[in-house]
Every structure is written in structure tokens, then in C-alpha cells.
Amino acid sequence: MAIRTLDDLDAMDTAVGVRVDINSPLADDGTLADDARLRAHVDTLAELLDGGARVAILAHQGRPGGDEFARLEPHADRLGELLDREVAYCDATFSADARDAVADLDAGEAVLLENTRFYSEEYMEFEPSRAAETFLVSRLAPALDAYVNDAFAAAHRSQPSLVGFPEVLPSYAGRVMEAELDVLGSIEETPTPRTYVVGGAKVPDSVTVAEHALEHGLAETVLVTGVVANVFLAASGVDVGRESTEFIHDRGYESEIERANALLDEHGDRIRLPVDVAVERDGERVELAVSELPPRDDEAVMDVGSDTIAAYGDLLAETGTAVLNGPAGVFEDDLFADGTRGVFDAATGAEYTIVGGGDTAAAIRRFGLSGFDHVSTGGGAALRLLTGESLAAVEALDR
Ligand SMILES: Nc1ncnc2c1ncn2[C@@H]1O[C@H](COP(=O)(O)OP(=O)(O)OP(=O)(O)O)[C@@H](O)[C@H]1O
Ligand SMILES: O=C(O)[C@H](O)COP(=O)(O)O
Description:
Blueprint: E1 15-19, H1 36-40, H2 42-50, E2 54-58, H3 73-83, E3 87-90, H4 96-103, E4 110-113, H5 128-131, H6 135-140, E5 146-149, H7 160-163, E6 171-173, H8 175-184, E7 194-198, H9 203-215, E8 221-224, H10 226-235, H11 242-250, H12 254-267, E9 271-272, E10 276-281, E11 284-289, E12 303-304, H13 306-317, E13 321-325, H14 338-347, E14 352-356, H15 358-366, E15 374-375, H16 380-386, H17 392-397
Parallel strand pairs: 1-2, 1-5, 2-4, 3-4, 5-6, 7-8, 7-13, 8-9, 13-14, 14-15
Antiparallel strand pairs: 10-11, 10-12
The structure holds adenosine-5'-triphosphate (ATP) and 3-phosphoglyceric acid.
Protein name: Phosphoglycerate kinase
GO cellular component, one term: cytoplasm
InterPro entries: Phosphoglycerate_kinase, Phosphoglycerate_kinase_N, Phosphoglycerate_kinase_sf
């Protein structure tokens, strides 16, 4: 059965539980440092509220014990500003107070319930039928008439607020969920030739994305950047120097060198490696051709160099679809931002551009780049779709 969307929901005077992912970076004073994920859900929430729904918003923030584990009051205020209407905040999630807050809503009104992860069950993974028996779902569901899941970025978690409600309520995908699944779930329908740019520091994930794209014919070409490029350079026999080699070993990525090697053996003609890189020398950015490597012992490979940026740019200009996953260098440091800025900017020259990955999207915002067709709200969830895996919360909706 296909997943139902908001097109299938008559929201008028209906109490709708809407699971969103507004998990955001927080500033030291607890305010939101970035509201991109809140902005993403505005269309879904506005559509429901304009349609006369009584909206109870469910969300998490941080992980128990972590620095960003926090109440959702700032999120309610900011959502209210973005929606240009009040979003009430209730410091309970499923207790009588929470149910009363939902019952008190009039058509077109919204309340944000407290961080779902304040309750231990929400930080566990369950089969949907068992998730439906948790306190959160079994106590809150009776106050609701329908459930909308718009939390694509958390859809890989089999947690109660994500997989339990579809067992007991008519359930629908929100607009964010719908758009993410449409794009990331059907890469093979995007314009060809496709070029994947895989970088960043989570090398095992990036290698899996590259492997999946190459083996399933999703990408004609894979361009490697970031720490991933260092691993591929090492796999091709280049000495990336003591610092970068130690980085690879400290993270336990030796086996990734072997995986990269296997990919180079099998698909070497479709994988492009940097021809030059950047290191820091006396506080300056210094570029070295790959033939000049290794760098000095105290120098790490922190970015791709200008010749690589130009070569990758030429290729991207000829591309039907560019899929970006992971920054090209340590973009947080201005000295090493050129690769990420240059390669990502060049990717907008492709006919169609998809961006996946939390840090990747953060880099795009940092550089004020625009012109991408789809910037995913998801990190782990986007990655799973890019590697061909299914998402627990999507399977729960598809019943
Ligand atoms: N050459 C390099 N050496 C060390 N770190 C690097 C290098 N290139 C990129 N990075 C780091 O990689 C990090 C981002 O990689 P990551 O794999 O987490 O990206 P992402 O997939 O977009 O993010 P997420 O997994 O959070 O969704 C950045 O913090 C950046 O500084
Ligand atoms: O930020 C994310 O990737 C999602 O909100 C999921 O958060 P989690 O990794 O803590 O489950």
C-alpha cells in the first residue's frame, strides 16, 4: 500500500499529532543557533493549520546526557514566529496536562509538546506493535484523531513517537517526508550522467555511499574529497603524511583503505581522486600537488587544492545530477574552506543537485550558497536512503 500524504487527510477540526524533527544546534545560552530544521516544517504545519486542524507537535531535542538535551520552549517561540501565529508550549508530552493542552485547542491552533526523549522509552527502539504499547503512544493517542510523520531526519529510528502511532491512528506523511522520499528514494530517475561527490570525515558511511552508487550504476562518476579522499589516496599508494595517516588510524579506518582499494580495482575508471591538496604551513594555506606528497611530518591534508577544485568543477558542469555528501575539507577553518565552497558552488552548474548530510547542509548555509534543487534535512536518514536501506518510520507509515 502506498503511503498516504496530506492530500488524503481532511484536517478540519481534527486533532492531529505531527512528529517533526526540529533537533537543532543550541547556543551556550540555550537559544537556537540554527533554525533551518524548523523552517523546513513550516509548510506542513501551515497547511494543517490553514485546513482547520488542531495540531499537537511532537519532537525531540538532543540525546539524554548530551549538551543539547533541552526543553522545547525556544522551539515553540521560533515556530510561532515562522508560522506567524502562536504556537503554545506545554511542558508535558503525554500526561493529563498534555492531553488537556490538546483538548483545549481550537481549529487552526497548535501546541508543541515537551521533548519526547525526556521519557526513557522514547530513546529505545521497538517493533511498531510494541512501540504502540509504550506510555507515550498509548496515553497520547486517545487525544488524537490522526498522526502525521514529517520527521524525515529521524525516520531511521524505530522509536515510539516515530513508529508507534501508525499502529493505532490513521497516519500520513507530511510534506518534508514526502519530498525527501520522492527525491532521495528515486535517485535513479534524476537526469544522467550522475556524479556523486563524497567527502567528510565519516569515512565508512561515505565509502558505503560510493560503493552503492558505483555498484548499482547510480553514478557514472564518483569524486572523492575530505578525509575520504585521503583514504582513497592512501589506497592508491600515495603517502598522505604522518598526520593524516595517524588520523585515519586513530579513527580505526584501516579497513576503509582496503574497501577503497577494492573499489579502485573494480571501478577505478569512474573514481576521481584529488590532484592537489592543501596543508597549513606557518599559519598559511599551502597547496601541494599529489606528486609532491608526503607533506612535512606536522602537516595534515586539510582540503583539496585549486587544480582539483577546477577539474571537479569542469566535470560537474557536464553533469545531469550532482549528489553531494560530506564537505571537501575542514570548511569550519577559513584556510580550508576553498574546496568545499568551490566544489559545492560548481555543483550548482549540474542540471539537478541533491545535498545530503547534516554538515554538508551546514556548509552550504555557512557559505550562503544557493541554487541546489534538494537540500535534505537528514543526516543519518539521508545516508541510509543513499545507500539503499529502508527507514523504520517510513515502513511504519506504509501499512
Ligand atoms: N581533510 C580533512 N581532515 C579532517 N577533517 C575533515 C577533512 N575534510 C573534512 N573534514 C571534516 O569533516 C566533517 C564533516 O564530515 P561528515 O562526514 O560528518 O559530514 P556530513 O555527512 O555532511 O554530516 P552528518 O554525518 O553530520 O550528516 C567536518 O567537520 C570537516 O571539518
Ligand atoms: O539529528 C539527527 O540526525 C536526528 O534528529 C536524529 O537524531 P539522533 O541521531 O540523536 O537520533
